[in-house]
């Protein structure tokens, strides 16, 4: 399977956090790639086993792995009061992501490599490869 669909959005702030998680739920997206730096408030629960409730949607923080200096992998379980279904969701947070100048070939290549990495993870990892859902890409 080739994953080639993306949902691109800005880092959710304030009242847009609710809409962000509803989009993830409605699209059945199991992979989020976040390019926001550490200065922006997280839009996810910030402690393992903590649950953030947004209306009828519950985001449970299951696990966190530090993968190098600038990559953190978060795992969440999303559940709903409206449906008897749970969605396992992974968020890859590249917290040292630079502002990309797409006119600059080197920086443009970094952006391209990151999307290729996310696509590779989605295609080759069993937890994602059985899904046709889009990858959610969060930019600052």
TrEMBL record:
Please provide, alphabetically and separated by semicolons, the GO molecular function terms listed in this UniProt record: protein tyrosine phosphatase activity
* Ranges where the Tyrosine-protein phosphatase domain occurs: 5-140
- Pfam families found in the cross-reference section: Y_phosphatase
InterPro entries assigned: Prot-tyrosine_phosphatase-like, PTP_cat
For this protein, the record's PROSITE patterns field holds: TYR_PHOSPHATASE_PTP
Its recorded name reads: Tyrosine-protein phosphatase domain-containing protein
């Amino acid at each position: 399977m080739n994953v080639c669909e993306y949902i691109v959005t800005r880092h959710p702030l304030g009242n847009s956090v609710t809409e962000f998680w509803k989009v993830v739920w409605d699209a059945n997206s199991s992979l989020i790639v976040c390019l926001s730096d550490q200065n922006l408030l997280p839009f996810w629960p910030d402690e393992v086993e903590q649950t953030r409730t947004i209306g009828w949607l519950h985001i449970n923080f299951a696990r966190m792995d530090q993968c190098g200096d600038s990559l953190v992998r978060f795992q969440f379980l999303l559940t709903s009061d409206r449906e008897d279904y749970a969605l396992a969701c992974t968020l890859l947070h590249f917290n040292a992501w630079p502002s990309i100048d797409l006119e600059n070939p080197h920086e443009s290549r970094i952006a391209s490599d990151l999307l290729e990495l996310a696509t590779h993870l989605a295609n080759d990892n069993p937890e994602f490869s059985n899904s046709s859902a889009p990858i959610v890409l969060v930019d600052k």
